[in-house]
Specification:
This protein is α+β, with helices and mostly antiparallel strands and 97 residues long. It has a single domain, classed as tt1808, chain A (Alpha-Beta Complex). Helix content is 25%, strand content 27%. The chain has two helices and seven strands. The protein is globular.
Length: 97
Amino acid sequence: MTSTLHKSISLAEFLKLPETEPASEFIDGRIYQKPMPQGKHSRLQLKLCNAISQIAEEQEIALAFPELRCTFGGRSIVPDVSVFVWERIPFDANGEI
């Protein structure tokens, strides 16, 4: 991870910034840009998400999401894979995430 901004900003200020490609993350008042994933990494990420969701989705246990922005605890990160238990997934009235 490489720091792309030397001045400390707030989480609220960071969340107002436009998304970057690859994604930027906010940790301890600093912005870091994630490295661009290569093919092998992307393939493993996809296989892991599919394997988790294949086992857990039908039984409404959990879902795996690739590259989903997660903001909590004063941080805003984009993990390679995030797994959410079913009760924590925000579905709308149509049953869509």
